Amino acid sequence: MTKPIVYGISKIGPGHIRATLPNQDSFFVKNFGSYSLLVISDGMGSKKHADVGSHAICLAVYKALVHYVYTERRHHKRNRNIFSMIKNEWLKMIAPYNPKDCSATCLFVLRSKKKVLAAMLGDGLVYLRGKKEEDSKLLIDEKNDDFSNSTVSMSDSNYFNEWRFASVSTKKIDSVLLTSDGISSDLIQGKEKEFADELLKDVNHEKTLIKKRNYIQNVIDNWPVPKHSDDKTIVVMETR
Prior knowledge:
This protein is an alpha+beta fold.
C-alpha cells in the first residue's frame, strides 16, 4: 500500500495574540509502518494550561495507537480499548497539572490497510471523502442556540460516552480533512461538506507538498469571517 501524503497548518488566532496567549491548537501527522495518523486537539481557552493539554493529547493518541496496533489486536473491543488508552496516556503526560486546567478536544483519523477509523471528542470537523459520494462520512459539532451546551473535552468524567466515530473501508476513501473549531464554527450550518469537498479538491490539484501547505496557509491567513478570533488548524491526508 502506497503511503498517503499527510500535512497540516496551525495558526494562532487574533484573540490569543491580543491576550498574549499561546496557540492552544495542536496537531500531529505521521505515517508509521502500514498506518497513517492525523490528530487535532483544541485546548479550551478558559483553561490556564490548555496548550499543554492539547499538545499532550496529540502525543497520547500517537503513543496509544502505536501500542494498540502493534500489541493489542483485540478488534472486538477496539473502540473502548483505544479511547481508554488515550485517556490514560494523556493523564500521565499532563502530570502534575490538574486535568481540568488542561481541558482539550480530540479528533483523529487512523488509516490502515483495511480500514479508516475516524473519532471525535468535542467540537471541530472530521471528513472522510469517499471515492463515491455514498461512502463519504462527516463528523461535525452540532451548532445550536443553547449557550449552556459546553464543549466536551478529555478532562470530563463522562468523556467515554461522548466519542463519535466512523469506520470505512480504506479502498473507498481518497482524502481526509480535519479542522479545529476555529474553522468549523465559522462554516454555514449544512455547508460543511461543501467546504470540505472544495478544499480537498483544490489541494489535490497542487503538485508538491510545499504548494499544498502554502494553499492551506493561504486559506487560514485570509479567512473571510470578519472579527474571527480563534486559533485555526487544518490537517489533510491524501492517497496517491
